[in-house]
Design brief:
Blueprint: E1 11-13, H1 19-29, H2 42-60, H3 66-92, H4 102-113, H5 121-133, H6 147-152, H7 156-164, H8 166-177, H9 184-204, H10 206-219, H11 227-231, E2 244-245, H12 259-264, H13 273-279, H14 281-284, E3 289-290, H15 293-302, E4 312-314
Parallel strand pairs: 1-4, 2-3
GO molecular function: isomerase activity; sphingolipid delta-4 desaturase activity
Subunit structure: Interacts with RLBP1; the interaction increases synthesis of chromophore-precursors by DEGS1.
Pfam families: FA_desaturase, Lipid_DES
């Protein structure tokens, strides 16, 4: 089953996150990066094509044998679904229509959410902004695992199960760490999603509905793309809080692998993050980085010094402003 890991608590730090200071330093040296702070209108058409692809898949799987429904849910649906969650991540940063049309981005996020089967977009936006403002903030950043996760998932087998159950933990963690009042937009997101799911079931039946939901759950669990959940902030090297990935799966994930670049410049769309790295190469080339998310998953399970506790955590000071 594997040996119990040595770490018994999070890595508490008493310094600010590094991204704000690095952003100021880079902009002072490379002011041309400001030109990249604009919407990516191509994102709109990519999302529309992805929604269309999933609608086509819902239709095509309606009469398949169940074994093939499961097969295609994992091989195709999971990739589209996980990619769509990262399109929603882009939209949460107003990358589709810009900051001047923030509500357009919220409505578009609800539209992008439809083929996932579960309401996600509006709540994700609220919590994700906290993650950027208060990275590692105790009781605020719900990207940090709970103490139960760190305590219980402490052997190789349990860590493997934790990876499989990632969608479950990401769903319930906000309710445990930082519950927020439900907003009108979240209710709209929920009602729109339920209506869409009912229509899919009415038009094409249980297999299409199962394909949609299974693709989302499988894609966010034991899946190569899910390596980014661990690669982004789990402390494989002491003292390093954020890590970038420069492998080929960035093509499916709107360059979310460029994660140091993203946290330094969250208002630059993923499409332009490789340019940030190129322009400010002296700041990024020597930072710890990955080239395989599959290896990250393997190392997380097999390295007995790494667990859900392997995160930097901060006790926040002063006023905390949340969405």
């Amino acid at each position: 089953m594997g040996n119990t890991v040595a770490r018994e608590d999070f890595e508490w730090v008493y310094t600010d996150q590094p991204h704000a200071d690095r952003r100021k330093e880079i902009l002072a040296k490379h002011p041309e990066i400001k030109a990249l702070m604009k919407p990516d209108y191509n994102l709109i058409w990519v999302v529309v094509l992805m929604v269309t692809a999933q609608l086509t898949a819902f239709y095509l799987v309606r009469d398949l044998d169940w074994k093939w429904v499961v097969f295609w849910a994992y091989v195709f649906g999971s990739c589209i679904s996980h990619s769509m969650t990262l399109a929603i991540h882009e939209i949460s940063h107003n990358s589709a229509f810009g900051n001047g049309r923030a509500m357009w981005n919220r409505w578009f996020g609800i539209f992008a959410n439809l083929p996932l089967g579960l309401p996600y977009s509006i709540s994700f936006k609220r919590y994700h902004m906290d993650h950027h403002r208060y990275l590692g903030g105790d009781g605020i950043d719900v990207d940090i695992p709970t103490n139960f996760e760190g305590w219980f998932f402490c052997t190789r087998f349990r860590k493997f199960i934790w990876i499989v159950l990632q969608p479950f933990f990401y769903a319930i963690r906000p309710l445990c760490i930082n519950p927020k009042p439900i907003t009108r937009l979240e209710i709209i997101n929920l009602l729109a999603q339920l209506s869409f799911d009912i229509v899919i079931y009415y038009l094409w039946g249980a297999k299409s509905l199962f394909y949609m939901l299974a693709g989302s759950v499988l894609g966010l669990g034991l899946h190569p793309i899910s390596g980014h959940f661990i690669a982004e902030h789990y402390m494989f090297l002491k003292g390093h809080e954020t890590y970038s990935y420069y492998g080929p799966l960035n093509l499916l994930t709107f360059n979310v692998g460029y994660h140091n670049e993203h946290h330094d410049f969250p208002n630059i769309p993923g499409k332009s993050l490789p340019l940030v790295k190129k322009i400010a190469a002296e700041y990024y080339d020597n930072l710890p980085q990955y080239n395989s998310w599959i290896k990250v998953l393997y190392d997380f399970v097999m390295d007995d010094t790494i667990s859900p506790y392997s995160r930097m955590k901060r006790q926040l000071k002063g006023e905390v402003k949340q969405d």
